[in-house]
User: What shape does this take?
Amino acid sequence: MAENPSENFIEILGVRTFYTKTGKGKPLVMLHGGSPGTCSTLNWKPNIQPIAEAGFTVYTFDQPGFGRSEVPKDHSMDFRVKHSLSFIEAFNLQESHLIGNSMGAYIAASIALQYKTNPGRLILISSNTLAPKGSPVSQKIAKTHSADLRGYVPSLESMKKLSLGTFFNAKLVTEDFVQERYEMSKGALYEAMLNRQKAPKAKSLVNDLHKLTMETLIFWGANDQGAALECALLLLNSLPNAELHVFNKCAHWVHWDQADRFNQVVGDFLSQSS
Assistant: This one.
């Protein structure tokens, strides 16, 4: 059994950043998404320990303006990418595996494109921000999802509604889950969300995806209401060395909806690397 996560803070680009480290073995950095109330320990709660027990040192951290990390002055995606890359460099993790969901997948791909050495393997989960836009129907789905997130105003009722759209399995939306996520979505963290909405949009990586030659695994939920399956197929066709796993009865957080299956596939995939 992997040791319990150690919780610490480190200053990265002037931002006091909360992070955890769990297990022993080749490093894996997990990058969380950007929806209201998201943070690293909640986002990856069903995954950190099982993947660490498969033989990896798992690093997670709260993005600036999320969870227990400080709210930054710069709310742009470019800053989040620079901050994440600086976190990796601070721990000398340039050859680590990377996994990201939604916004975190975009950040993971951005980092992989900037590595000065050959990175490990790459795992991307349900990311409209990263994938090609697809047909007008797929674009409408993404825009509707984005509007729902942007329109969030902190309350337990609003967070429950938002969370029910995150999962296929409604039983995962417990009172404790909603409460924890709500607490991470109000006050200064809500103000940070509003400031992120005013920041410049993330630049498209579509024309650079062919440069990501490392072994890559894509996860997508067949029932994702915010990221059309067409986008997953376009992403697959844009990456030279990727495979796609579509999970039925899964929505946007595949890694929660079918956590055991997800953890098994990830552990097997990463264990195949040299």
User: Anything to note?
Assistant: Residues 136-150 form the longest helix (15 residues). The radius of gyration is 17 Å. The chain has eleven helices and eight strands. Residues 6-271 form a domain with the Rossmann fold fold (CATH 3.40.50.1820).
